[in-house]
Amino acid sequence: MDFNAALDVVESVDEAVEVAAAEPPSADFPLAEYGRRFARLRALMEDSGLDALVLATESNVRWISGYDSMIWAAAASWLPGALVVTRDPAGALLVVSVFDAGAARGTAWTPVAPYDDAGELVGTVVDHVRRTAGPGARVGVETGLGSSIAMPFDLAHALVDGIGPAADAFPLLSAARMLKSSLGCIMKRPPTTAT
Fold first, then answer.
1. How many domains does the chain divide into?
2. In a domain? residue 111
């Protein structure tokens, strides 16, 4: 991927797409910001010939979905999660542990599919990709230099194998994230009361 060409694609997109009907209660940004991010990422996916992305790195998952949780810092190795992004925002799906489904629903604009056992994660993601993007979909995963898949090796290996030949999504995500929001981080938190 030519990075400068990718930046040209990102800069050419300014219109937001509708990503969800309702804003999550603890979103970092308004839905319109996530809609702009999604539109830019989708333009890069189209330019790269990708039908879907499967993301498992905290910074990329949070950037596109809003999902924020202490799980990333404390337990990502034993409670991994993944986000499926398709060209249609209606096909997005966040797969997380049932233990963290509340945080996911409170912060992410995407639908949430909780699993009871980490072994269910791969099947849920692969089935969703096939159902929403098609059985022969070209899928990008964070596999290249500078990236990592935040889950145990056996799950990461099974995920990449289950998807089929995966393209490296890291350069695409790096280009999409170069354009920063003018909003900063809104961080909606409940007001505290002094006692």
1. 1
2. yes
